[in-house]
């Protein structure tokens, strides 16, 4: 069965061959073996460049032939020991050809060290002991740990097996089992399944486990490698450029020459980019579309300031505004006079002055509220029945009821209501004028911009705002002093609104003219070339990172190839084939018989 496995693996990757050889020779793989096999896998796929010794299949087939022979063998001697524990290099251990050989000695004399050599060369249950170098030899870490074991085959011919750093040159002694206290401990405390697996199939299982372990470790490396991915989106390469095509096409096959070509930058390109920038700016300065957009933006800014001035003029200078102020003041004075006359008629011959005035009206309304709440009804003034004064609480006589009735009629007269309405409009007009906003700090950028159209605009504008504010103050004075006749409104010497309107008209006329012009055909090729150079410069700035990213992609591809070679499908197929060939129904039946005997 081992011969078929060797024939099969001879056409497989080298790291498979090395794994199979070590399993055949040593029956197990150490952590060091796994690391070496993984490194061979990486070397075969270009990830590493470590040296290794390919499998000598002639020697391996000889090892198998020797380990599977049915001839009797006899241990003869252990000698030529070098750098194994504290064993002397000149010492040896001989075994008798016949009978029983007894080895004895004090603690530390080397019995266990010789047993460790035998456990590696022969077969044993449990784990093999580790071969340690001589701790007392200062150069022990750089010297191989080795020994020679002699034996006699069935023909009496003396042969030798070498043990070097835990590896044996021949499996002829694998039919000898070494049993010691450590093996006994394994039988007592260890756990083994009661099962029979032909040695060849067991080897394939161990080989498959080796592949799975390496595959899992390679997957961890792949995940770690993916964490270092360079996000090319951070370069902000523009679409529809050669740089974008290159960066989107980055893969494991990208060559150093391709990277250099895409990122190439020199003084000539640098100067060309500067020349293009100047040419584009010069051309755009004459670009009708840009000029139209700039003019439109300026028009919108000017309209905001113009509307501010227009609002002030509408409230202060228009005939409608002046007439409204005059009308409000006239109505207020007329209704106030009418109310005064009516009040004198209604409140003459009273023992107190100012009855009918504002303070008295507030008192009257408070009395009304109190009386109605006390009666829980709207009956004030109550003059048809016996009632009381809401202030002194005395019973009202006929004269008092008459006064209450006349006072209420006065409050409800049209004259009073007309005055109240006129008074409300009068106060609202004053407040409206007081609320006018003459703060233009937020318009400072626009005012500064208008100075380019008229260097004297700021001075004129200050005069214009001052004159508007003077008109507002004159209106307030007329209202508060109830002037008759009204003081006249002075003419304005400056008018920023009209100047702004003239600038807006000029800009709108200019936009109409510019709409018939275009530089797109001339500008487009310059902008396209500038974009290509600008994006190439971005690539050049990240030249090293792009190179590292391509290396990462190549490594990721190689790791993927390595992982693909670690799939166990092929080894599983071989195991099934060997099982069909060697595990016959008769063998299964015999094994069941043995199990029954064992109970």
Could you walk me through the main structural features you see in this protein, from its secondary elements to its overall organization?
- The structure is a single chain.
- The protein is mostly helical.
- Helix content is 60%, strand content 5%.
- Helix 11 packs antiparallel against helix 18.
- It is elongated and about 160 Å long.
Number of helices: 22
Elements, N to C (H/E): HHHHEEHEEEEEHHHHHHHHHHHHHHHHH
Strand content: 5-15%
Which secondary-structure class do the elements indicate? Answer: mainly alpha
Question: Quick one: overall form?
Answer: elongated
User: Segments where pLDDT lies below 50 for 5+ residues?
Assistant: none
* Total beta strands: 7
Radius of gyration: 56 Å
Cα-to-Cα separation, first versus last residue = 30 Å
Helix content: 55-70%
Average pLDDT figure: 83
Major sheet: order of its strands?
A: 2-1-4-5-6
Q: Please describe the biggest sheet, giving its number of strands, its sense, and whether it closes into a barrel.
A: 5 strands, antiparallel
């Amino acid at each position: 069965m081992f011969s078929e496995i060797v024939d099969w693996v001879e056409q497989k990757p080298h790291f498979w061959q090395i794994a199979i050889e070590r399993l055949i020779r040593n029956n197990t793989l150490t952590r060091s073996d796994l690391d070496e096999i993984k490194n061979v896998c990486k070397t075969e796929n270009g990830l590493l460049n470590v040296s290794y010794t390919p499998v000598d299949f002639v020697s391996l087939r000889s090892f198998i032939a020797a380990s599977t022979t049915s001839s009797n063998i006899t241990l003869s001697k252990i000698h030529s020991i070098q750098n194994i524990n504290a064993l002397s290099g000149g010492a040896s251990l001989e075994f008798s050809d016949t009978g029983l050989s007894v080895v004895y000695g004090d603690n530390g004399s080397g019995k266990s060290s010789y047993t460790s050599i035998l456990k590696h060369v022969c077969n044993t249950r449990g784990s093999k002991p580790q071969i340690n170098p001589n701790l007392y030899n200062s150069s022990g870490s750089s010297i191989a740990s080795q020994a020679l074991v002699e034996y006699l085959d069935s023909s009496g011919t003396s042969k030798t097996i070498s043990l070097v750093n835990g590896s044996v040159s021949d499996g002829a002694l694998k039919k000898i089992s070494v049993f010691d206290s450590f093996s006994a401990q394994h039988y007592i405390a260890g756990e083994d399944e009661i099962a029979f697996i032909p040695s060849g199939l067991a080897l394939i299982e161990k080989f498959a486990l080796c592949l799975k372990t390496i595959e899992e470790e390679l997957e961890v490396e792949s995940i770690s490698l993916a964490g270092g991915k360079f996000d090319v989106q951070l370069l902000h390469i523009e679409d529809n450029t050669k740089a974008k095509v290159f960066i989107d096409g980055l893969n494991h096959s990208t060559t150093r020459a391709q990277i250099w070509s895409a990122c190439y930058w020199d003084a000539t390109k640098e100067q060309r980019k500067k020349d293009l920038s100047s040419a584009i700016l010069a051309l755009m300065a004459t670009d009708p579309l840009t000029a139209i957009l700039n003019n439109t933006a300026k028009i919108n800014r000017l309209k905001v300031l113009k509307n501010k001035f227009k609002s002030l003029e509408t409230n202060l200078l228009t005939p409608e505004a002046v007439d409204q102020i005059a009308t409000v003041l006239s109505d207020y004075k007329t209704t106030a006079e009418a109310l005064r006359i009516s009040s004198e008629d209604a409140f003459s011959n009273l023992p107190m002055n100012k009855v009918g005035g504002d303070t008295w009206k507030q008192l009257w309304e408070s009395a009304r509220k109190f009386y109605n709440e006390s009666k829980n009804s709207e009956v004030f003034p109550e003059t048809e029945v016996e009632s009381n004064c809401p202030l002194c609480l005395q019973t009202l006589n006929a004269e008092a009821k008459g006064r209450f009735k006349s006072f209420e009629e006065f409050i409800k007269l049209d004259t009073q209501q007309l005055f109240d309405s006129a008074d409300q409009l009068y106060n609202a007009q004053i407040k409206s004028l007081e609320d006018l906003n003459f703060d233009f700090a937020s318009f400072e950028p626009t005012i500064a911009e208008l100075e380019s159209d008229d260097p004297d605009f700021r001075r004129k504008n200050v005069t214009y705002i001052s004159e508007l504010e003077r008109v507002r103050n004159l209106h307030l004075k007329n209202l508060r002093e109830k002037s008759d006749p009204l003081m006249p409104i002075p003419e304005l010497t400056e008018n920023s609104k009209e100047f702004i309107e003239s600038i807006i008209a000029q800009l709108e006329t200019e936009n109409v003219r510019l709409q018939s012009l275009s530089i797109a055909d001339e500008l487009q090729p310059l902008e396209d070339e500038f974009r290509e150079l600008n994006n190439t410069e971005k690539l050049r700035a990240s030249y090293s990172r792009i190179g590292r990213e391509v290396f990462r992609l190549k490594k990721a591809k190689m790791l993927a190839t390595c992982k693909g070679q670690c799939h166990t499908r092929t080894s599983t197929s071989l195991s099934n084939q060997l099982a069909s060939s060697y595990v016959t129904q008769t063998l299964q039946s015999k094994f069941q018989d043995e199990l029954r005997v064992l109970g």
